[in-house]
Design goal:
Distance between the termini: 44 Å
Radius of gyration: 21 Å
Strand content: 25-35%
Largest sheet: 6 strands, mixed
Helix content: 25-40%
CATH superfamily of the largest domain: Metallo-dependent phosphatases
Number of strands: 19
Length: 345
């Protein structure tokens, strides 16, 4: 039996930006649901962080989620695991957005505690966000479990949490070594060690997602094999100007996209202005021009432009500091503080 696995959809993210949700909609209407139909899939497993804000919901974003995602999903059996963005409390999964907001959909089963579920004749252990309240019980269940497969929302060491940052302040992955395969949400980048598979989220949300492959997974409950379905749609683009003639610029994909133009060489101002004007005529949603980097070498330039969102900039500051404190611990504290601050805006 083939099932679909998706995670970290973050509905209502970017403050329910219409621009981003139009982009998300392309994935659901042109990739996700057509793929389910193509493979005859009837069961969908969501591994957490369905909604973005754990404390509130934007009504427009909720209406969009119902129309674009939940109503089309109503003919499928849906298993939804609670992630950290879904849980209202830091140390408990009992109050969570999927259970509160999706009651009208009887086809959806929400898992706020570790539970073994049989799907297609295969016992799968669902592990929601581990916190102070459920940590000991979850550990006990993992130790006793005879399941071959785990699906959860896990924060494990040794995997790329986001571009350029390997998690060092999470949980040891050794407790999962006895399982044949472990699928997880939480980290948005794809990575694996041959046992644990972080499948990544289905689409770009921030600029540090640029050029990263996104999508979802199809899993066979009989063979235990899986494969990725990639999302071909992009939101963020890096362009480079090196006295490049504007005639060589193909803008066909840039409408309503966020573009960062990195200037390596600009000898003729008028030619550069023509190049930029062509970008504006393409109706880009946002254009950021980065120049005046002649004082650093190319390797430093690429590192400095890796990401430009506030969280990444703050982490970069910690990396460059000479503080004797554990930088991974500082980054984790920063991450939690940043998330809480974002939810108050």
């Amino acid at each position: 039996m083939l099932v679909s696995i998706i995670t970290d959809t973050h509905w209502s993210s970017r403050k329910s930006s219409r621009l981003f949700h139009d982009y998300f909609q392309l994935f659901y209407e042109n990739i996700f649901f057509p793929t389910l139909e193509e493979y005859g899939i009837t069961t969908v497993i969501h591994m957490g962080d369905a909604f973005d804000n754990r404390k509130s919901i934007d009504f427009w974003g909720l209406d969009w989620t119902r129309k674009v995602v939940m109503d089309p999903l109503s003919k499928y059996d849906v298993h939804m695991i609670v992630g950290n963005h879904d849980a209202f409390l830091k140390n408990s999964n009992k109050i969570n957005s999927p259970e509160l907001l999706l009651k009208e959909y009887p086809n959806i089963k929400v898992y706020s505690e570790t539970t073994e579920v049989n799907i297609g004749g295969l016992d799968i252990l669902f592990v929601p966000w581990i916190n102070q309240e459920n940590e000991q019980l979850t550990t006990d269940i993992l130790t006793r479990s005879k399941s071959k497969i785990v699906m959860g929302h896990l924060e494990l060491n040794g995997f790329e949490a986001h571009k350029g940052h390997i998690m060092e302040d999470g949980r040891d992955a050794k407790i999962f070594s006895k399982f044949q395969k472990v699928f997880s949400g939480h980290y948005h980048n794809r990575s694996d060690d041959g046992t644990v598979y972080y499948i990544g989220n289905p689409y770009e949300i921030y600029f540090n997602d640029v050029d990263e492959t996104r999508g979802f997974v199809i899993f066979d409950t009989e063979t235990l094999e899986h494969f990725y379905i990639d999302n071909p749609y992009k939101m963020h683009y890096n362009l480079y100007y090196d006295d490049t003639p504007n005639q060589l610029l193909n803008t066909s994909e840039l409408e309503n996209k966020i573009v960062r133009l990195i200037v390596r060489k600009k000898s003729r101002v008028k030619d550069f202005e023509n190049f930029v004007e062509k970008l504006y005529r393409a109706n880009v949603a946002e254009l950021k021009i980065v120049e005046n980097y002649s004082f650093i070498d190319e390797e430093q330039l690429e590192g400095s432009l890796e990401s430009e969102d506030t969280f990444s900039l703050l982490q970069g500051f910690i990396d460059e500091s000479e503080s004797p404190l554990n930088k991974s611990v500082l980054k984790n504290i920063l991450k939690q503080t940043y998330m809480e601050a974002s939810e108050l805006v």
